Recover the amino acids of this structure.
């Protein structure tokens, strides 16, 4: 099971790195920009979580394998990929969103902090990579815009469900699968049916 | 007195959250953007201070009450407020500026760091919430622009006075009131008389 | 030797502060903006390194002399300098790039972290001050743009050489001089011969 988790983490990180590098290419950046944006997208959410919680050195500093994978994924996709099939990207990105959110909440609960903070950290871990990517590209983050399909909301709801299940003593692995699964399914449904949040 | 301080903190945080949410609405963000900007405006200054000083987990992670208040204030003002009366907003924001600045300096002195750093941390705590809000909204921070009325300057001068009073052993509470009062009064005067800093 | 290092650090920090303040002036900021950008440019890279590694309070909080020097350099250059001679600026900035990169790698190795992370931290320390400066000025960071002469690349290669020399037990001082010298020379050569990275 440990191994599956590790594989999923690599998939999520690499998916984010690719998304960052392609975005950098669209913005006429060079390979320095592309790998930096790849790092920011892949590690941004978890890094902000670790800094806020005081878990330092941050996670990727302690895991050179992830760092190398991100670097290679970013560089390769900058030079070799024209674009990613929209459908494939959506699925891989949704896996990352689900997995990162549950990981963020889990680490927070391990520090015995309040469930409210755990939900927040789940959402931060899930979505802030993309927010940093957009800030570096000098635009208002996509997920904040009013015509964007549900993204942070999926992370929020799935993390709430996960924490509720933990609080009634459901097995941690089962709770993780249900939480991440909810986020994954909800995100795909949101894009399919163009679900957005109500405007004022 | 503890209680008064807590009430003032809530007022300052809620005022910042409202300012952030309304700014998000002006920038055509959805409720995710609005609550994120509300958090960044309310907690940004104190968070950067805590990170720089190594006071982790950061303050709001340890205080779920503040987190909930910010979330509700952000969401309510996004959906329900058209705009805030300029005068009311100015007063509440100036209270926040004064209070946050003195709190930032106080925490720094508690760690026995130099008075110069305490002044810097006072200003950072007072003004960086608004700076983060502006960065997320993709524009040059308002308080950096050359036609803006004194803002960081009020925080700087009031914090210097506060630290001077502490250094000559004035009672901490009295010094706080004088420091925060100076910042509050000076900020209102700056807006009233359109006081700006000299250009080169 | 300690003394030479300290003098070089002051030169690098002051050069960065001047570059930040002049950039702020070009963007029609006031003195608050100018000193803030000066701080961000001078201390940004080292601050991000310290936060990621968990070395808090961050370095400048413990060194009020550097803080005062940055403040004065920022304020003076905002009010008194029209512009800096391009050649002088290039040389001083290249000294800073070399020195900051080697310092960042050294601190990381001291914490017994992996050489890969040490290279990354060298680059981060060397270049992120300028990245933060550009973000505050609301534009895509210069060093990410595809027509920019080698900058992060110089830091990357010089830091790799430095770490290789350390790993084969060369004297630390000699390795530092060779590493920083490579970065310095390569940066000047890159500007002189308009060397850029290959586009996809």
């Amino acid at each position: 099971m440990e191994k599956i988790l590790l594989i999923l983490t690599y998939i999520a990180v690499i998916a984010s790195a690719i998304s960052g590098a392609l975005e950098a290419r669209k913005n006429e950046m060079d390979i320095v920009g592309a790998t930096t944006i790849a790092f920011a997208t892949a590690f941004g959410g978890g890094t902000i979580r670790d800094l806020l919680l005081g878990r330092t050195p941050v996670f990727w500093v302690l895991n050179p394998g992830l760092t190398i994978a991100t670097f290679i994924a970013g560089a390769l996709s900058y030079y070799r990929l024209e674009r990613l099939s929209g459908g494939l990207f959506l699925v891989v990105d949704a896996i990352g969103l689900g997995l990162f959110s549950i990981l963020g909440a889990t680490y927070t609960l391990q520090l015995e902090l309040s469930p409210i903070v755990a939900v927040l950290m789940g959402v931060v871990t899930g979505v802030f990579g993309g927010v940093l990517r957009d800030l570096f590209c000098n635009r208002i983050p996509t997920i904040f815009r009013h015509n964007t399909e549900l993204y942070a909301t999926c992370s929020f709801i799935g993390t709430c469900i996960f924490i509720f299940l933990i609080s009634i003593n459901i097995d941690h692995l089962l709770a993780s699968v249900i939480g991440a699964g909810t986020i994954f399914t909800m995100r795909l449904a949101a894009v399919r049916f163009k679900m957005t949040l109500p405007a004022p």
In short: The two ends of chain B are 44 Å apart (CA to CA).
